[in-house]
Design brief:
It is a single chain. With 113 residues, the protein is mainly β. The chain has one helix and eleven strands, in the order βββαββββββββ. Strands 2, 4, 5, 6, 9, 10 and 11 form a seven-stranded mixed beta sheet that branches. Strands 1-3-8-7 form a four-stranded antiparallel beta sheet, with no helix packed on it. It starts with a strand and ends with a strand.
């Protein structure tokens, strides 16, 4: 079973930046072939897609984060990252890394002054 371990969450002021990382415990070949994604769930809300990236680097973003967030991957290192800029209080949520149908444990991002 694939394990996904997220890191990089924390508390940041509005307008600030954070970079989330996710390490996958799988082969580089399997990782390279997998769609990787970030989802988030805010308190009292449904889990929602933030961004995805294919093995070849094609990306897709939720409208709410376009122009502020950037997803990237390093297939050799089996890492996927989410660079989050211009963070706003509404970005506060638990962020989850996904690889196909596998999910990480989540990392908390809190945007507050």
């Amino acid at each position: 079973q694939v394990q996904l371990v997220e890191s990089g969450g924390g508390l940041v002021q509005p307008g600030g930046s954070l970079r989330l990382s996710c390490a996958a415990s799988t082969s580089a070949i399997m990782f390279s072939a997998s769609l990787m994604g970030w989802y988030r769930q805010a308190p009292g809300k449904q889990r929602e897609l933030v961004a995805t990236i294919t093995g070849r680097g094609s990306t897709n973003y939720a409208d709410s984060v376009k122009g502020r967030f950037t997803i990237s991957r390093d297939n050799a290192k089996k890492l996927v990252a989410l660079q989050m800029n211009s963070l706003q209080p509404e970005d506060t949520a638990v962020y989850y890394c996904t690889m196909g149908r596998n999910w990480g444990q989540g990392t908390q991002v809190t945007v507050s002054s």
